[in-house]
Every structure is written in structure tokens, then in C-alpha cells.
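seq as requested:
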Amino acid sequence: MIKLNIQVSDINTIISMYNQIRIYTSSSESGTYVHLAYVPLVAGVSNYTYTHVQGTTDTWYRSSYFNSVTSVESALSNAAKGSSPSLYPDATYPEECDFDADQEIIIRKIRRLIGDLKDLKRLYECDGEFCSSIHSDGHTIDMGERGWPVSVSINSVEYTSLSDPVVHGYQYLTFSGSLISGTQNPCIDVWFYTFTFSDREIYDAYSDAMIPPLVTSSCVTDDHLILQAAIDLLESMTADDLINDGATIRDDQTLYDPSPGLRGRNDLLNRLRKQLDALVKECIRSSIHGATGYLID
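C-alpha cells:
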């Protein structure tokens, strides 16, 4: 599923000539574009969205303005890709980093490979309840698990700046003002994405991924680096779990055994390593076949 965001820069002029946005789609940037859908133009509205259920991150789009009465159509826009719809559609708290469309595609591919898809959670404490999430410093909220806020509201006041609150360790929100006033607890409403790795950590792993052995820099592709980053992240996750949570614990009534999960992750790691090995072999084979030189007999 892909969401298209279309902005009409001068709606008053455009709507005097056209009454629809016409959307086209193609499987490649320079391919043949076919008509997909119409979006009606509305007076005074400059921003439009269209959700393409069958769209993927590899689908391309172009659009035009169209008059359904006269059949007059404007020139097509430049080709562009859409974006996957957000879990929380009206995010008001800024993202940690601003990534372009290509970077977001890389992050999504790595998330799917390692099974770290974002989830949406809510921290809500209101109606005079004891706010257990507020730390004793009176400035910090504990979200309870690792994540990144998408909407932060205290006593119905939205916070929309990275500097207030400041996110620490992907779990704690520290505000500039006091959260506790006398005996009246504030009304806390925080929506946040949960994950094992943040978008920034995933993209850093991609940027830091080492080129596989025997693969020249001119031959390496995004697929090599994406697979290597996924392997690196899973290995770091496994190492952390083995140190902090790898022991089997048994008492008279219960048994805690993390080994099935660790074995499943190891199987996933082995599959990714095989995929990377296959890409490396294909790259080396192509390099050999493309080599030129003299035959000495």
C-alpha cells in the first residue's frame, strides 16, 4: 500500500481550468504510464492524498490536471515514488532524522529482513490518576519501552519541538517545565512507535556495512549493503540477548527458556548469509566474465 501526496501550488488558478487530478502509474521510472485514478479538485484545498492499495515501494507515479467536461489535460508531472502510509497519520512530533524517499526504502527493506516492523503504542494517564510514568525529577516521562514519539500532549497542550521534550535513549521524554504542580497530576497523552532499532540506527548500520570480501567497490550494490546491514543488526541483537537474557531459568512451577527464539533468529541469520553469499558469487562471476586481456598459449 502506497500513499501519494499531491500539492497544488495555485489552486485558484488551476481549478478555473481543471476539475480533477489524473494519476498515472508505472513499474519503472522511464516505463509506460497507465491511468490509475482521478482525484476531484476542491476550491481552496491545496493538499491531496491518494492511497494505492496495490502500490509498492518500487511503483512510480505521474500526475496531470484534467477537465472532465472539455477533456483538456495538462502536461504530466515528473515521475516520483509514493510513501508507505504511517501507522499514526497525523504525527505532530518531529522525526529523529529527515530521510529522503530512497533512504526510507532502504530502511523499510532492512526492517522487513530483520522482522523489526514498527508498532504503535499509547501512554495515557489522566483524570486525576497517579502518574506512574513521571520520574521523581518532575521533568521526565518514561514511555515504558523503546520507541519514538509521534504525538505528545500534556494537559491538552501539544509539544512539537525536538528540543522540548528531548528524547533520551528512545524511552525517556524530558521536558523543560515541571510536570507536577502541587497535588494535581497532569493529563499525559503520548502516542509513540515501538521498535528494536530506530530508523537512524538502521540507516547507520547500512552506512557502516562493510563491502563483502572479494567484491570490488565498483561492483557492490545496495542489495549487498542491505543484506550486510541486516546481518550486522541481527548479530548485535543476538549478542545482547545472549549476555543479558540467554540463561534458562527453572523453578518448581515455571520454566523460562529463550533457546527456541535464539535458534529461530540464528536460522534467519543463516538464510540472510546464504543470500549474501549468492550475490557475492554472482558479482565475482560477472567480473570474471567481463574481464579482458591477452590469452597466452
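Residues 2-81 form a domain with the Immunoglobulin-like fold (CATH 2.60.40).
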